[in-house]
Design goal:
Blueprint (H helix, E strand, L loop, with lengths): L3 E6 L4 H13 L6 E7 L3 H11 L3 E3 L11 E4 L7 H10 L4 E3 L7 H14 L3 E3 L7 H9 L6 E9 L10 H14 L5 E8 L2 E8 L2 E8 L10 E6 L2 E6 L8 H13 L6 H22 L1
Parallel strand pairs: 1-2, 1-4, 2-3, 4-5, 5-6, 7-10
Antiparallel strand pairs: 7-11, 8-9, 9-10, 11-12
Helix pairs in contact: 3-4, 4-8, 6-8
């Protein structure tokens, strides 16, 4: 199987290191993807990652790589930067994985999706939590609890994060909810808590509740999902193991091999729409 050569932009994110370690150091035989170029960040960080992955090509701007790689991985912490990095490559027909979130506004998210359509290429974006074993177990168990009534997803998130606020960590919560209850959120309601915010909406007849809890300095609440059905309940923590990025990387590799996006477009956009509503509502409440 032909090896795909990819580049990473946004190397300040810890995910960049884990992706390089998996693809270039561990080099699994069934994942023929290698990171061959980096868009430079802070000097020491750039040098560290280049040495880790044996990466020789370092460029100043992501645009310097147009036409020279098989795909781009965008891992910038701030989702507000993702449109500028992703759109030129998508329009040129180059597949892109935007780690998380897809964007920090629904307008940017729509433009990224439209760029993929214009370029006739594939796009993916997701939280690492979407793919981990605990989320899989909850999703697989939904059929055993009867007609689904309600789903609650809880986790740490801070509306005051310097990386586009609630989007930075809130995407984990919103994306897990979309994995468990896919569909367009309707009638989104947002309420402020003493240490966080709650969003409720419906998908069909199912009530979805997202609890974004601000870490208080002594720790943070775990990610957790609870599903209530007509004759049962599933509830479990969603734990990120040491290999937490690998399932998402594997999904990206399958996309490159098959040309098929692993997540429907509607599921890329729905979490961003919810988070934008949360961001606007919390800003209004703060005023």
């Amino acid at each position: 199987m032909e090896t795909k050569n990819v580049a990473i932009v946004g190397i300040e994110n810890s995910h960049a290191e884990e992706i390089i370690r998996y693809l270039n150091v561990e080099r699994p035989d069934d994942v023929p993807v290698r990171v061959v170029a980096l868009v430079a960040g802070e000097d020491d960080r750039t040098r560290e990652l280049a040495e880790l992955g044996g990466i020789e090509q370092i460029v100043a701007e992501s645009g310097d790589l147009l036409g020279s790689i098989d795909a781009l991985i965008v891992t910038s912490r701030d989702g507000a930067l993702h449109r500028a990095h992703a759109v030129p490559f998508l329009e040129a027909g180059t597949p892109v994985w935007v780690d998380k979130p897809l964007a920090a506004s629904i307008a940017d998210a729509h433009e990224i999706v439209a760029a993929a359509e214009r370029g006739g290429t594939v796009l993916t974006s997701s939280s690492a939590l979407r793919w981990v074993a605990d989320t899989d177990a909850i999703a697989e168990g939904l059929g055993s609890i009867g007609e689904l009534q309600a789903v609650t997803v809880t986790g740490p998130a801070d509306a005051a994060s310097p990386y586009s606020g609630i989007f930075f960590y809130g995407i984990h919560i919103a994306d897990v909810a979309q994995r468990l209850v896919p569909g367009e959120p309707e009638d989104i309601d947002v309420q402020r808590l003493p240490g966080g915010v709650v969003a409720r909406y419906r998908v069909g007849g199912v009530l979805v509740t997202l609890e974004f809890i601000r870490p208080d300095g002594d720790g943070q609440v775990p990610f957790r999902a609870t599903a209530v059905g007509g004759h049962g309940v599933i509830s479990r923590d969603i734990v990120l193991g040491a290999d937490y990025v690998q399932p998402g990387v594997d999904a990206f590799a399958r996309m490159l091999a098959t040309g098929e996006a692993p997540i429907p477009t509607a599921q890329l956009l729905a979490p961003i729409a919810v988070l934008e509503t949360v961001a606007r509502a919390t800003a209004a409440i703060a005023v």
